[in-house]
Amino acid sequence: MKKLFYLLIFTFSVQILMAHNGTIKGTILDGKQKFPLEYVQLQLNKAGTIATTDLEGIFKFTDLEEGNHTLHISILGYKKKEITVAVKNHETTDLNIYLEAEANSLKEVKIVSDQKVNMNVISKIDIATRPVNNAQDILRIVPGMFIAQHAGGGKAEQIFLRGFDCDHGTDINLSVDGMPVNMVSHAHGQGYADLHFVIPETIEKVNVKKGPYNASIGDFSTAGAIQFQTKNRLDNNTVSLEAGRFGHYRMLTMLNLLGEKAREKNQNLFVAGEYFFKRGFFESPDNLNRINLFAKYSGAIAENQMLSFQVSNFSSLWNASGQIPNRAVANASMTRFGSVDNSEGGKTSRLNANLMLTTRTDKGDYFRNQLFFSHYKFDLFSNFTFYKNDTVNGDGINQKEDRNIYGYKGSYNFERKINKIFFNTEIGVQLRYDDIKNSELSHVKRRNIFLNNISLGDIHQLNAGVYIDENIDFGNHFRINAGLRQDVFAFDYNNKLDTLGYNRQDVKKAVFSPKLNFYYTPNESLQFFLLSGKSFHSNDIRVVVAQNGKEILPAAYGAEFGSHFKPMDKMYMSVSFWGLYLQQEFVYVGDEAVVEAGGSSKRVGIDLGIRYDISKWLYADADFNYANPRSLGVAISENRIPLAPTITSIGGLAIKTPFGLKTSVRYRYLGDRAANEDYSSVAKGYTLFDGVIEYSFKKILFSISAENLFNKKWNEAQFETESQLKNETMPVTEVHYTAGTPRFIKLRAVYGF
Fold first, then answer.
1. Which of 103, 228, 678, 752 stands 20 to 30 A from 439 (CA)?
2. Computed from CA positions of residues 678, 681, 687, 688, in that sequence, does the dihedral angle turn out positive or negative?
3. CATH classification of 2-102, choosing from 2.40.30.10, 3.30.2140.20, 2.60.40.1120, 2.170.130.30?
4. pLDDT at residue 20 greater than cutoff 70
5. According to the model, what pLDDT value does residue 134 have?
6. pTM, 2 dp
């Protein structure tokens, strides 16, 4: 490890000024709206050096011999272009190159050594071919990820990925435009990640980074990280109206606030507003109300500076039926859509402000600065055990908090060439401070009667991280990525229920996370990769103080081997074999204010993805995922990890005709999985089919979509729980579930202008 560290420090500090013959530098732009295009691939001559444009659409080739050179330019969604450039000794040729848009085609996709480019290509294809109509669909874009809603639509989804029941986000890092979604030391659960503040139509791309292999990502990145990026500009203004079964209504407006001339000068400002209401299919109505407002400016404020500023405001109010026990449905005391305690539900809100400034130096280096702020409120009422603990008033609980998040991210990115080797270096600093007032768990009766506090306190939590990420391109199809990351945490908890007077506790802890990844790309149709790294997820501050700072940042060690390849022009495939070891951890159960010991665990698995342009009008995709999650240090008969997914698959067919008609049929498969440690209890799997038909004519688009096409009975969220009903004398342990959506049909009309 020391040798690796010294090698990285050496490469970071070396800057050699080399004389060169000539340089080609330029910007790639959209031919119609004149905005810069990032991730465009340029190859010098037929088999020469490959470059990729940055977020400002800029590229550069240096140290070129005098004479004519040909640039081969390609990016998904635009026509290929070739340009011959005359280069003179010790001179720089500066170009503006405009590309003409065309339909996406896998035939145009090239596999390159830069993994960010490959991920961006697949993200663009998936977004373009899959219907995304709500916040849940945003998560369903991620290969291998499954979600479950069990609280009326207002609560964050339960997330499953790579053999992890991530709960609401404990083992998956989620961010939007670099702003964290996960909530540390949340009143309901560690890492709680509510994405409902995102308007789906504002999403431009989704970067999927499975595993603990990225130095720029810290907390919660054990199973991986999902980075959502919103659009910098709108193609046109839109008004959208939706109506569907079960009292589903949605209205959306997205408007450009600057004229066409301003947008041609790369000045963009748009607003989006969404109102959503859902009565729901349960006997006790959900009555979910959600309002989203979003505004974003992005543009060049100087020749070498890009500014992005966005604000958003989200509020939601809902009721919930909660999980019901199998026995109540079996004895016909209630239906699948009934409720034991229909006083569940809640309200939440989030106000965000996010400022990003990117400065490019004369040498082409980048300095990025980001400031973000969130004000977040959460107020949830639940009842999981019914009358087990209080046979008179019931076991209703109220979890709430009022939180401010302050954050900063800064990074400096530079590229240097030594002989024929390119060194691309990123050095970063990240700060996050959470200030939480009155994080509370209380015993209540049907929302409106307070009985007693179970826990109550103020939380102050600081996370400071620094990292170095080095990409070394040897120019012979071989690339190494190495990274080092250091995180420091300061936990401070003021327990307002501590009657002994020792109510304030603070702990400081640090964790070191190295990464080392190899990529070999022998041609444009094949890449092999070998990834390795260490990451972690922080634990709830109440675990930290209960454990006196011991074993509070459990590490995750991962490794992965795989390949991206194109067996034919119009097919793209990926396969990977992975393994992950998670250290001993302690879990804070927010619903009971207790700490449960959890042992170490291991997971091994296989991911397979296929994208195939069967013809100009027919596209197919499928992802298959297998994981084998097991607890360590226990008997084999009791080593299952409850609710951890083992076999999952998603896929579908999309048809696009030249006369404006599009249709898509998709499936979701989640296999049976253990609901407890000895697999004596089963969380039942399901296979569901969804479909959508769209027709666009001039400025108008109509669509009809359906979820659960065949109206299958299925269980969405499932837990093995010990509970007691009103008429029972003893508690019973069995699977409790929330019924999945029956056939749901929705109509939508969109007007663009």
1. 228
2. negative
3. 2.60.40.1120
4. no
5. 61
6. 0.91
